[in-house]
Amino acid sequence: MATTEPEKIVVSAHDGHEISLWKKGPANGKPIVLLHGRTWSARPVWDLQVGSPPRDGASYLGANTMDLMASRGWLVFAPDFRGLGGTKRDEEGWTTPNKCVSDVLAVLDYLAKEGHQKPPLVGWSQGALIAQLIAQKHADRISQLVLYGSIFDKDVVYSPPSKEDYNKPPPYIANTMEGAMEDWTVPGIIDDEAAQAFGDEALKWDPRKVSWSKLDEFNACRGEDVHVPTLVIHGEKDTYTSIEKQKELFLSIASMDKAWRIIPGCDHPVHLYPAQRLLWLSSITSFLERDHGKN
């Protein structure tokens, strides 16, 4: 499957802000929504182009998740949160968990109007916390939940920002190549060309560091309030979490229709690594496709 540019759709948020939504896959494919994490937007995270001409994103050495999923019959949608990728900052300038939840709900509204009701929702890293909040409060909007590399930690309690701090304009902080490279913690797990491509694309789409605030809204994350079918999946050597914390997350989830999958030998961005990304996807699809009449 040749690598292609995703289609860009502009979705109007509930407050009128324009949200960039990237789309790729067969028109009659099974819809799925992917949420990126804290620092990098959808294009470098889910639609990474490696090489010139680009590698086949669905191949063994590809690193393009949208291409890989599209090759397996999925119609993939990936929004950018405010201040990331193709979505501009709003007037306040701050990106907050509740704004992200509202914006994803606007995306789900758009998809429902297009005939894609209740898609599965995949959230990576901090995006997994956004996905979890949606599952807790709006379970009727999604069919299944995938918490991938979630940074959930029941022992972390965020304090709200002061009104004075929130009313200040956020500072300009530039992202760096060093920051883009910090996820690779297992030697040799990604080839140099793919790592460089990620750094280049990350800085192209997200030259300025997004300004998060009101992280105390994440304090509402409670596995006990998740009642949709849920897959918890992460890399064995993920430095942003631990097997023990993932175990706590898994056990806390109220739904008994749940599974926990550890991908061996890799760290946080499992979906970018040659052998592991195939195991990652097969683990996700085997969990999700039960609702599509498959074993």
Automatic annotation (TrEMBL):
GO terms for cellular component: membrane. SUPFAM superfamilies: alpha/beta-Hydrolases (SSF53474). It holds the Pfam family Hydrolase_4. InterPro entries: AB_hydrolase_1, AB_hydrolase_fold, AB_hydrolase_sf, Hydrolase_4. It comes from the Eukaryota. Residues 65-271 form the Serine aminopeptidase S33 domain. PANTHER family: HYDROLASE, PUTATIVE (AFU_ORTHOLOGUE AFUA_2G14860)-RELATED (PTHR43798:SF33), MONOACYLGLYCEROL LIPASE (PTHR43798). This is Serine aminopeptidase S33 domain-containing protein.
